[in-house]
Input
Amino acid sequence: MKGEVVAVCISIEVGTRKKPVAEARVIEDFGIEGDAHARKWHRQISLLAEEDAQSMRDMGADIKPGDFAENLLIRGMAVSRIPVGTRIGVGTEVVLEVTQIGKACHSECEIARQVGTCVMPKKGIFAKVLKGGVVRPGDEARTL
Output
């Protein structure tokens, strides 16, 4: 399975929307440098399919890359169908391993209040970093 990185996003505080950046340094067994969720745990990087974000726009949600707190927005890859344990290569260096599919929201998010539902709890995936490097929009993402 292959796709393309549409956006790389980070936030400096937990519980806030992430902002797109031109590139980010991914650190082995830590996450994205400067991102609030980076630390030694099983959810170092979050991924979401652009197509799932678009489905929310189609329902009337006014969203941009990073609004679901995703680190990597990927087009052309059904990320929610990638099984736990699968490795994903991003760009020329980065290797991730899927650790979790979906998550319980802390509370009903702003997007769910706007349109009645949210995709991240069921469609977002989480991964730990097996090999670091730099990621940029336009990089290829592929299952290994």
Observations:
- The helical segments are 50-58, 110-115, 120-123.
- The chain is about 15% helix and 35% strand.
- The mean pLDDT is 89.
